[in-house]
Design a protein that fits this description.
The protein has one domain: Trefoil (Acidic Fibroblast Growth Factor, subunit A). It has about 210 residues and is of the alpha+beta class. The chain is globular. The two termini are about 30 Å apart. The protein has a 4-stranded antiparallel β-sheet, with helices on one face. Strands 1-12 form a two-stranded antiparallel sheet. About 15% of the residues have low confidence.
């Protein structure tokens, strides 16, 4: 088990979130894959998830889906935690992905959509949004490594996109409510605590 996942489990942050479904990824037939998926869905329907605010270290603001939109491609910003209109659009859960031991999907509570780098871009400054999980063209641009910045503990951490190796970043290190969230070169010019995040547990619930 890798260091990041071990730290998460030790802290109880992923308890009950990850359904074991490795067999589905190596199924010998479509029928078996369907059966596995149905079994996983059934297990998850009775499962309580841990929901977190994801808080930017530099500003104390929360990762937020703008306007609490449930639409595919809605923008992701930083917003005042619990501010006017804020609620489940600032709540996220972490979901393990079979075959990717070091990475998670980050799923919005209000919409069920995934934190996504637009157009699978590998560029610095590419926009981050919410999108259908595993939708057309989506794969590694929805998978994030939680890279700890302190030995022996998960938090604080950087979210590093699998497809690009770039970090979840508040643009221009802005302190403003509604500042845009992008992917940026990890530790690049002008970056620092605006690429550093913490989890804050807010609920344990099915949805």
């Amino acid at each position: 088990m890798n260091r990041t996942r071990s730290a998460l489990l030790a802290a109880g942050l992923l308890a009950g979130v990850i359904a074991a479904s490795g067999a589905a990824a190596t199924s010998a037939s479509a029928a078996q894959s369907t059966q596995n998926a149905q079994s996983t869905q059934s297990a998850q329907s009775t499962q309580n998830f841990q929901w977190f605010q994801i808080v930017a270290e530099h500003s104390g603001m929360c990762l937020d889906v703008a306007g609490a939109s449930t639409a595919h491609a809605a923008d992701v910003i930083q917003g005042t935690c619990g501010g006017p209109g804020a609620g489940r659009n600032q709540h996220w859960r972490l979901e393990g992905v079979p075959g990717f031991a070091r990475h998670v999907r980050v799923i919005a509570r209000h919409s069920g959509k995934c934190l996504d780098v637009a157009h699978v871009s590998a560029a610095h400054g590419a926009n981050v949004l919410q999108a259908f999980c595993g939708g057309p063209g989506a794969a590694a641009n929805q998978l994030w490594e939680m890279r700890s910045l302190r030995s022996g503990t998960l938090q604080p951490f950087r979210f590093v996109a699998l497809h690009s190796g770039k970090c979840l970043d508040v643009k221009h290190a802005s302190l403003a409510h509604a500042a845009d969230v992008i992917q940026g070169t990890c530790g690049g010019l002008g970056s620092g605590a605006n690429q550093v995040w913490r989890l804050r547990l807010v609920a344990v619930a099915k949805s």
